[in-house]
Request: fold
Amino acid sequence: MKKKITIIDNNSGKKFDFSVIKGSNGPSVVDLSNFYEKTGMFVYDPGFKSTASCHSAITFIDGEKGKLLHRGYSIEDLAKYSDYPEVCFLLLNGELPNKEQKKKFNDILTHHTMLHEQIQRFYSGFRRDSHPMAIMVGIVGALSSFYSEKTHDFSSIEGKWVAVSRLLAKMPTIAAIAYKYSLGQPFIYPNNNLNYSENFLHMLFSTPCGNFKPTKAQTDALDKLLILHADHEQNASTSTVKMAGSSGANPFACIAAGVASLWGPAHGGANESVIRMLYEIKNEKNIASFIKRAKDKNDPFRLMGFGHRVYKNYDPRASVIRKYCHNLLKELNPENFPLLKLATKLEDIALNDKYFIEKKLYPNVDFYSGIILKALGLPESMFTVIFAVSRTIGWISQWKEMTDDINKTQISRPRQLYIGEKKRVFKKISERSMRKNKQMFPNEIS
Ligand code: SDX
Reply:
């Protein structure tokens, strides 16, 4: 028998039945898609703390236990045994590739890493001191004019593959050029003899005067970071991509919207904020005062890299990154990185503090990632860019899963609780009172 729940309206005494749908893992859902039709009321859930926006088979998160699975494989196993291109294949296709599939997939990505020469001109339009994420939003969005509906049908499997393959292949190139542009250095072309992470490091750090040859530890560290940030269910930026995609927008433009959403300090921008916070804390003596500020409701300061909407336990990705931090810094002389020692001390104090324990605030993926990126030689401004490169596979896989779903015909269009003025009669300007309206403009309006 189909499971259901009954909601009783205590005012009218009316009863409304709604079916319960069980997934393969995790909480069931109550199907409220006809709630308004049945009750004449909307369901209210700002921030979507209790809302499942879709069904998906790609990623499963158990927030209470701190577990993360991609197509059923644990993030710990994928970080330990796999590599980023292989995880991309898994997220897209639902299975790990066999030897032949892996080679073909890698070859396709390798042969699409170059950007159209004209795209390079877009960079020169940006101020030299632009945040690289501003450049990423602009360049990724501009790709929609090079891969447009004039030449591609993005509702077809062929058109979707063009979007998937070009985005995965070109994001490292776009990111590396944004970095080189900020340095005033010449752009470095991709090298087809290198694997995904080696090539990314090559484009970031080589110059025409000499090629950068990353060590295995450096390549491994980047590859693991790319795996660990690849996808994370219906987070803010993925939901942004899917919201844009639900109107049938160009997939490159949808990914640009995802880049914009990820940039926020509450989301992917947190890795940059963590490092800036550690620099501000400076040394262990100051930790207590920052923890005090984080707990003070009147202080907007939050402990960056701590807390998560879903994880009420240690973010499994943070555990893996923490381990790689130590491995990488062993090679790169940990004494050069007091940040890691400070971060470890800060974590230790926070995890034993009543406020953080009660509110179940643990380190998330952003807490340690910046330390590895710093150890790789990148500035804080590039941290969220690396996150965006990695999350491109999550965004485009979730976009493809949504657009492949033939029942997915509706545009995503939430409603609201209206709290504004009721209907009013229009007043001529001569009839409008001169009483001081609430402040409409900042004092110095220009
Ligand atoms: C990512 O969704 C995803 O999956 C995202 C992500 C992904 O892979 O896509 O995992 C990547 O975005 C990780 C999160 C990175 N952001 C940060 O590290 C920024 C710092 N963290 C917070 O701003 C916060 O924890 C959020 C935004 C991550 C989650 O916020 P929620 O779920 O809306 O929780 P909340 O703001 O309602 O906080 C609950 C309580 C509040 O106190 P009360 O109002 O109940 O008294 O916990 C407090 C908050 O004040 N709190 C913190 C805190 N985070 C929450 N207090 C101090 N420091 C913090 N970091």
Remarks:
- The radius of gyration is 24 Å.
- The pocket of s-citryldethia Coenzyme A is lined by residues 232, 235, 266-268, 270, 294, 302-310, 359, 361, 364-366 (CB under 6 Å).
- The first strand starts at residue 4 and ends at 8.
- The chain has a mean pLDDT of 94.
